[in-house]
Amino acid sequence: MGGMMQLKSAKLLFIIVMIISSVLLISGCGKSGNRFANQPPTIQITSFEGWDTTYVSAGYDTTEVYSFQQRIYWHATDPDGVITGYAFRILDENNNPVPTPGYEYIDLTGELTPDNLLALGTGWVIHYMTGADQNIPLDDPHARRSIWTSQKYAVINFPSADSIGNPIVKFSRFEVVAIDNRGAITPHPAWRNFRTQSDRPKCMISSTKGNPNGKDVGSGLKLAFTMSDTDPFITAVPYKYEFKIMKITNQGAVIPGTESDWFSTTSEDNRTNRINEYLLTKYTNPPLSYDYDEVTLAFKNQRTKIISRVTDLAGVISIPDDASMMIFSVRPGFRPHTFIYPTKTYALTNHHFEDYGDDSTEEIKVIPRVVTEGVTRYALPLFKDFEGKYTAVYSTNIKLWIRWGWWGEYGETRGETVTYGDTIKIKTTPYNKKVDVVLDSRTGQNYFSEITAFDLRLDGEPYNYPPYPFSKYGFTDQNGKKWLRLPVNSPLAQTVVLTSGQLPLPPATEPGEHKFEVRVVDLQDEYDPTPVDFTFYLHRYIEPANRQGVLIIDDDPVSAQVNDALITQKYQSMLEGYNGNVNVITRTETNEDIRQRAIAFSDLQKYKLVIYHTDNYQKTGNLQLDFDAYSLFLMRGGNLLISHTNLLGAQLTEIANGGLRKTFVTNLGFNKIPKVSYLNDSNSPFFQKAVSNYTTDYNDLNLHYDVTGSPAIHPIIDLRDGLGYLSYFENGNFSGDILYKFGCKPTTYPTYPPTSEQFDKYNGKTVAFRRTTSSNGKVYVFGFPLSFMKVEDTRPMMNRIISELM
């Protein structure tokens, strides 16, 4: 039974298949062709501007005039495939294809146009293919190019000028076709007709450094062009600038035979490769020639005039006017002037750094830094040593930044006036506004030039910078001196960073001497005739155990009332019991420019003990200018004795800067925001003795006064039998061992005695203390001037201190 049912089902299925096949065969009778033939795509323009046949049939106005620049959108579909590209072209009123700004290359020969598109004609815009090298011009046969693009819109700048650049209403046509994935092209292009116009643009000319307005310029000038245009809703974009150069008389007449042809900023002669600039020198085309005699510098009674014009994207040319003309005189002899900025020249080593960051007193905005064991170390300007030499103490991870510039780089703006300062001020404080002009090295005159390159040398050889080898970037003077000439836009910019590869370990017996030389080069291809050099010395680090001798730093300025010579003599007498080397230097004489650091760690590290004194209570001294060197000295195991006055607290407060610069003051034993009490009153001369807190180790120190034949340091001390200018330290405001306490004048003293309240206030206060630093050095802080005390007392005290250190 089951077998019979399966047989019937099979027969029924066979009958159904035969019937369907017959129907299909009958329905196809009488028809020809391939039912799988590719159907071409269709395309339409979707933007509103312009007109085509649909506009005509709809009765729209086809005489409307549009702006020359149109953004045209299109859309294509394909019923049996996908769109793979578009081709478009622009036709003139005679249906001839024309190039337009932005689409300058068109296929006029048809070599890139497929055969099934040639029936519509040639002149389709050429594009780069995906991934093509766009440094190869599109008119080069080796370029990977095609008429097909994936763009779905184009910004077309329709011609709107006659043959000589006058603005006119002009007819143009835009056509676009699509191609699908099987090569079929829309049989009829989508098109729009346009009548377009453009306003006449205006051209303005200057130089990149301003308009000379009849002034003298050097033989290198970079012209700068700008365009203004009144076409609505369109950004003013030039197609090209052109200029003529000529000589004119003092009356403005053109000297016959001097007027050039028009030169275009888009020509190969333009070295700037920028459409809005053109470099002129003695060696360019056209050249700049002098209006002064090159030998006598006599004026030739002629000037140079330049007339410029601009062509906009519609082909309309401007009409020359006053704004498009420039007059100047080309004068020989201008040269730039080079600076190395000491306060923008830094070193960073294990022994040359600071740890408090931006020093706002020097207006340094960015300081090089490195993080070592979680502590940020900032680079420091190099110190000036006792001989006035720039120094730093070496380590193998050294980095040394040298920053250079030129006269005119910085200036001070007041209203519309810019002042550039003299060469000394600009050199040492390059923190004014960047104005970036170039001033003549002799006269300070702006000659409207630019800096184009820097010539560099290090230690008698051209600077070695592998990305810019000497073989390609070297320059040799007539005397054979060789330089590496780096373009102004090189990665080095205006700073070199020297490392141990260029700065080897200095000798053990003397510092390593290095000299970096630099000069700037301007648009004239003229360099600074007096290159600037930066000579510096790198010292080996001296371990504390290898230091010897005593250094006395006299920071007491000469005063009419305080005997500075006697102060120096007193300190030398204090150390007569010491058999080692004692050197004395006067701080105020080490460097005339107090803005530069006048005490160097490289000097301090040589000595077992450094004694710093500013004993003249009428002056604050310079500790706040030199604390970086002292701070490094203390961090590296140095021993420091400070003798000061009532002004110590003011100095420490300025140094601490609200606790931001804490290392030095905390190494001295004070809080990061130091608190120092003081007596500051000539009518309160209560201090007569420093009473020892260690009677067996330190002797008392008596104030020197009323000694026959031996006057006090200041006459008022002899007159009032006491000192009223000193600092004292309250408990909790310092950390260390108390050495001496305030020995106050008795209340019964006949001359200027204290009251009982005053006696109780001052007597017994700490006036000197000692502490051991974290680097195992020792600090001795005296709030009173040691030179004011009796030498027979201070000498044994000094011997005791030296015995603790040596």
Provide an overview of this structure.
The chain is α+β, with helices and mostly antiparallel strands and 806 residues long. It folds into four domains: 42-197, Sandwich (Immunoglobulin-like); 202-330, Sandwich (Immunoglobulin-like), CATH 2.60.40; 338-539, Immunoglobulins (Immunoglobulin-like), CATH 2.60.40.10; 544-805, Rossmann fold. Strands 39-38-40-41-48-47-46-43-44 form a nine-stranded mixed beta sheet, with helices on both faces. Helix 6 packs across helix 13 and helix 8 packs across helix 9 (648-656). 40% of the residues are buried.
What features would you highlight for this structure?
single chain, 9-stranded mixed beta sheet, disordered N terminus, Immunoglobulin-like, alpha+beta, elongated, 8-stranded mixed beta sheet, 13 helices, 806 residues
Termini Cα gap: 128 Å
Count of distinct strands: 48
* Structural class by sheet pairing and helices: alpha+beta
The share of residues in helices is 10-25%
Tell me the CATH superfamily of the largest domain: Class I glutamine amidotransferase (GATase) domain
What would you report as the Rg, rounded to the nearest angstrom?
43 Å
- Please identify the top-level CATH class of the largest domain: Alpha Beta
CATH architecture of the largest domain: 3-Layer(aba) Sandwich
Strand content: 25-35%
Biggest sheet features: 9 strands, mixed
Counting DSSP H or I runs of 4 or more residues, the number of helices is 13
- How many domains comprise the coordinates? 4
Average pLDDT = 91
Spatial order of the strands forming the largest sheet: 39-38-40-41-48-47-46-43-44
Query: CATH topology of the largest domain, what is it called?
Result: Rossmann fold
Uncertain residue segments:
1-10, 19-33
Question: What is the global morphology?
Answer: elongated
